[in-house]
Structure prediction request, 157 residues.
Amino acid sequence: MKSKGKKNSLFERFANAATKFTGSSPAFLIAAGVVIVWAATGPLFDYSETWQLVINTGTTIITFLMVFLIQKAQNKDGKAIQLKLNELIAAQEHTSNRMVDIEDLTEEELDQLHKFYVKLAMLAKKENDIHCSHSIDAAEEWNMKKAKGNKPVKKDK
Prediction:
């Protein structure tokens, strides 16, 4: 869904175009061509330090800029994927809405959730019904039922 109110900034348009181009076959062919031309001119320049410095400087600058471009593309893709996953969670009746926006949790909190889902995976393997659902909410509900049902009985003396 593209926003109609605000136009993409110049940088946003440039970054999108550059990302699309740098991941293309023509970009690879151009880069390979530059390296071939550079290598072919080696004898012409007696493989001098200046000749080597040209390719080193060029590749360093391009690498430096590409790191930021790749990170921007990764951030945008990651955000889009998170939003799609959040929509799927929110749209399903039996999923836990607690999972929406968990990317803001600490590493320790994510580790706790991971351990929980490892346990759920083990429970799911034991089930005969492949449609049986085990969510955080369902597990808590079962835990509360167990706690109520397993209260110690007081014995009369």
Observations:
- Residues 15 and 45 are 36 Å apart (CA to CA).
- The mean pLDDT is 83.
